[in-house]
Design a protein that fits this description.
Length: about 140
């Protein structure tokens, strides 16, 4: 999984598959979703940690929790907040440390989703492998 050229839209496919069912559930329990949105926004607001770092943390936790929808959402958000592929890979490494075997399966899924969103946000970098220690 060194480059994203072979990825077929894993993150986008997960988001698309969840879009309709999530919309229906949100209509059924709007107050729960409003509360979750407030918690989400509060937790990811920049403070001592910037939002990029918080999104990378959420991304790593999503890998540990084996949550495809969470992986896609936080991979996309991490890219939007300036994370690069090396940062995503290192966050996945921490997830593997803390979770073990399951993270070796969901880690590649997470990295594929991250690479997909990164390539879309940075088309000029589409063919270049991630530089070790690159700063976004």
């Amino acid at each position: 999984m060194g480059d994203h050229a072979g990825h077929d839209g894993y993150g986008s496919a997960v988001q698309e598959a969840l879009r309709g069912p999530a919309r229906e559930l949100r209509r059924a329990i709007p107050d729960v979703y409003k509360g979750f949105a407030a918690l989400h926004d509060s937790a990811l607001t920049p403070g001592a940690l910037d939002t990029k770092t918080k999104e990378l943390m959420a991304f790593a936790i999503a890998v540990s929790e084996c949550c495809d929808g969470c992986i896609a959402a936080h991979a996309h958000a991490a890219v939007r907040h300036g994370a690069n592929p090396q940062e995503a890979a290192e966050a996945i490494g921490v997830a593997i440390l803390m979770t073990g075997g399951p993270a070796t399966i969901y880690g590649p899924r997470g990295y594929a989703a991250f690479q997909e969103f990164y390539a879309a946000a940075h088309p000029a970098d589409a063919g270049a492998p991630a530089a070790a220690g690159a700063v976004g």
